[in-house]
Amino acid sequence: MPEIDRDKVRKDFNEAVNMTASELKKWLDTKESRAVGWKGKDGKGSGESVGHASGRRIIDILSKAKAELTDDDYAHMRKVVGYVRRHRAQEPANIATSRWRYSLMNWGNDPLKS
Known about the structure:
The protein is mostly helical. The protein has helices spanning about 5-15, 20-30, 30-35, 50-60, 70-90, 100-105. The longest helix is centred in the C-terminal third of the chain and has 18 residues, at about 70-90. The relative contact order is 0.21.
């Protein structure tokens, strides 16, 4: 992996992820959280969507001190930032109960939270 600006990645990640670890953990336990996201080519996959698995990973990252973050953590943080930025650009008319919002929340971003 080429050298990355870890401070910038952390800053971008902290801007993209606006939910706390406890908020995210509580959200991931809901049926709405489990109902959205890509679960593989056949739509079934392993039962857990990519975003839901990412949410669990984000909780792990949020619980670590800066010095404990690994290269894999930084790679995932970059993935989260990219996902949130791409999906925020596709904002639908109805946000509150949209699959779009639920999917973003799996990635740690609640569009209704300022």
